[in-house]
Amino acid sequence: MSVRQSLLAILSEGSQYGYQLRHEFEVRTGRTWPINIGQVYTTLNRLVRDGLVEEAERGEDGSVNYRLTYSGREEVERWWGTPVDRQAPNRDEVAIKVALAATAPGVDAFAVIHRQKAETLRVLQGYTKEKRSLPDPVQGDALARQLVLDHLIFVAEAEARWLDLVEQRLRAR
Amino acid sequence: MSVEARSTEPAALPDRRPVLLSLNDAARVHGEGTAVPVRALNGVSLEVRVGELVAVMGPSGSGKSTLLHLAGGLDTPTSGDVVVDGVSIAGLSVKARAALRRRSVGYVFQDLNLVPALTAAENVMLPRELDGVGTRQARLEAREALREVGVEDLFDRFPEEMSGGQQQRVAIARALVGPRRLVLADEPTGALDSLTGEAIMKVLRARVDEGAAGLLVTHDAQHAAWADRVVFLRDGKMVESAAGSRIS
Ligand SMILES: Nc1ncnc2c1ncn2[C@@H]1O[C@H](COP(=O)(O)OP(=O)(O)OP(=O)(O)O)[C@@H](O)[C@H]1O
Ligand SMILES: [Mg+2]
User: Fold this and answer.
1) Which fold has domain B19-243?
2) Who among B59, B226, B240 is closest to A128 (CB)?
3) Exposed end of chain A (fewer CB within 10 Å): N or C?
4) Which of A121, A132, A154 lies at the smallest CB-CB distance from B224?
5) Residue ranges of the domains in chain B?
6) Per-residue pLDDT of chain A (173 residues; tens, 9 = 90+)
7) Which ligand approaches the C-alpha of residue B37 most closely?
8) C-alpha closest to that of B104 among B76, B80, B133, B73
9) Quick one: which of B224, B101, B156, B171 has its CA closest to A161?
10) Considering every ligand atom, which ligand is closest to the CA of B63?
């Protein structure tokens, strides 16, 4: 879903070839989520099928330049204009594992929590280290990476905090 | 930068940086000999070297502030030993401890502890003037320290005329002013928004990278992640140490 919407949003800034779209998506999201070119073309084909994207022109080598249709433009407006749906939570392996560990016979839930927290902090340290290495002031492509890193840091922080709370709850039982 | 240089060293090499702070089986019991003694800290051993920032995490009441008080010579252990910059604090007189604190330790208190009757600048100048630095020089240093934490414009304000976060930054400036080599910070980012908190961590980290040693108490994993190591306290004991890999 997010790749589809992102490609539409990028196309709303002007027509693009498939390989350009892929490059643009990666750079503008801080190279955090690489996508393969096959995924880009599959998505584009669906968007064409759904009438949101059309061929603008075809190069001599057969490569296609894509542009948004009127409905595609409306779809982009709708995306910017509505919040991302958070109703159905992602299935999070850490949450599932810890919840199960809390009641699983013969499993040391505290050990599971401690190992997970060490891992979460290790990852957090890595993000922080990368953030410290960004140019100061942050410019150009690095801004996207900084924003995404900030997000990853907050998510990891929330997980660490939650693991603390779980430990306190289990100790209070 | 020394941090870069370190990253090329194999991890197995012994760490040759001087130890600036060490706690050796340090304990602090309140009301020893009474019916209900409180073991605020219970046999903690820890070393912090020059160039190293160590974060201390743990639930409320686990002994984090107690640990910092001992490290800063504000309090003495009831057993075990604390060595700051080569000096064992257990045997020091109150006066000698105060001198050691002034000379070597920059402290950010959990409750900030700014002197209400002094302006921001005067609060920051105070430890330097006690060190024997002249007023002119102390003022220059205070301005620079306040600038570093982004509150230069509060120079002539009194604590009661500042927001909580502003007072916090002045307290940090006071801890960082001068050549203090051991920086102890108890929840220094507590009242700060994310961006200001990050700016404070940058300042702390830079000071440590320039040759200080730091001990940082925090509840925020994202601030602990600026440290080289994280130690966890529970019920006065060190229970684990994570993210042990040195940041390179
Ligand atoms: N002067 C004192 N007399 C008696 N008990 C004390 C004294 N100072 C601290 N304690 C106790 O020692 C324990 C550790 O306190 P400490 O202030 O070190 O906790 P902390 O980890 O810093 O907690 P917080 O996150 O709430 O700041 C607590 O149980 C506290 O009540
Ligand atoms: Mg405390």
Assistant:
1) Rossmann fold (3.40.50)
2) B226
3) C
4) A121
5) 19-243
6) 589 999 999 999 999 999 999 999 999 999 899 999 999 999 999 999 999 999 999 988 888 999 999 999 999 999 999 988 888 888 899 999 999 999 999 999 999 999 999 999 999 999 999 999 998 888 888 999 999 999 999 999 999 999 999 999 999 88
7) 1
8) B73
9) B224
10) 1
